[in-house]
Amino acid sequence: MIVEIKLFVNMDTQGNTYLVIDEDKNCCMIDPGSLKMKKIISYMKENDLNLTGILLTHGHYDHIIGIPDIIDYKKVPVYIGEKDIEFLYDSTLSLSLWYDLDFKLSKNVEVIGVNEGDKVCGLEVIATPGHSQGGVCYLNREEKFLFSGDTIFKMTYGRTDFPTGSLSALRESISKILKLDGDIVVYPGHGGETEIKEERVYHVFS
Predict the structure, then answer these.
(1) What DSSP designation does 66 have?
(2) How many CB atoms lie under 10 A from the CB of residue 3?
(3) Statement: the pTM of the whole predicted model exceeds 0.85
(4) For residues 44 and 72, is the Cβ–Cβ distance under 8 A?
(5) What letter does residue 37 receive in the DSSP assignment?
(6) Dist CA 143 CA 55 (whole Å)
(7) CB-count burial class (<10 Å; 0-12, 13-18, 19+) for 27
(8) 3-state DSSP call for residue 148?
(9) How far apart are CA 120 and CA 150, in angstroms?
(10) Helices in 22-140 by DSSP H: which ranges?
(11) Residues near 139 by Cβ (< 8 Å), separated by ≥ 6?
(12) Taking a C-beta distance cutoff of 8 angstroms, is the pair 15, 191 a contact?
């Protein structure tokens, strides 16, 4: 059972990183998107949390650049949509080159590709391409929450003008998400949380 979802806002990228914590103090991390992950590492230490994995919603720099800091703290697998794996090693695809970062993940880090229907850290993978070709969301149907990355935000949605983006694919992905139970809480990659039923009002893709 999940007992807490802890949000950390990355001030350098204005993105959200989440810890999903269960009753046994195991946790997984969603989208470590800051060059400085000391605050979240300190939180895990202070609360005696056991990190079991890093889950990525997609491969853009503001969701992945904190991986090295976290791996230095504890070596855990990194999960990402199969079609976005190459983003971790290509600074043009990840957009990090646009910000003079030239981020490329070490080949020593264990990376596991995920696809529709896979289960990771108790979360179900939903394939949601559009913002990127391998974008995914992570869903807990029983406890009613979804990590949507940059597929859907409160009252808006992700851009499709980046490499491998596709508006038509995003339309299909949003339509899929909006068919989920209305009381599911959505935790996006940027901005505040929302609910599926609220987003049905704003999105013309449903």
Answers:
(1) T
(2) 12
(3) yes
(4) no
(5) -
(6) 18
(7) buried
(8) strand
(9) 19
(10) 38-46, 61-64, 67-73
(11) 123, 124, 125, 126, 145, 146, 147, 180, 184
(12) no
Give yes or no for a contact between 80 and 113, defined as CB atoms under 8 angstroms apart. Answer: yes
> If DSSP codes are grouped into helix, strand and coil, which group holds residue 40?
helix
Query: Does residue 113 contact residue 152 with C-beta atoms inside 8 Å?
Result: no
Query: Rounded distance, CA 141 to CA 161, Å?
Result: 31
Secondary structure class of 44 (helix, strand, coil):
helix
* 123: phi then psi, degrees, rounded to nearest 5: -115, 140
For the stretch 89-103, pLDDT in tens is 999 999 998 888 899
173 and 128 Cβ atoms separated by less than 8 Å: yes
Dihedral (CA of 121, 90, 15, 127) sign: negative
pLDDT on residue 204: 58
Residue 83 is part of a domain; what is its CATH number? 3.60.15.10
Domain of residue 189: give its range.
2-202
As a whole number of angstroms, the distance between CA 128 and CA 177 comes to: 8
CA neighbor of 177 nearest in space, from 199, 201, 155, 154: 199
Residue 9 token pair = 């806002």
pLDDT in tens, 58-82: 999 999 999 999 999 999 999 999 9
Kindly state the tokens that stand for 56. 């990525």
Query: At 141, is the pLDDT very low, low, confident or very high (cuts 50, 70, 90)?
Result: very high
Q: In total, how many domains does the chain have?
A: 1
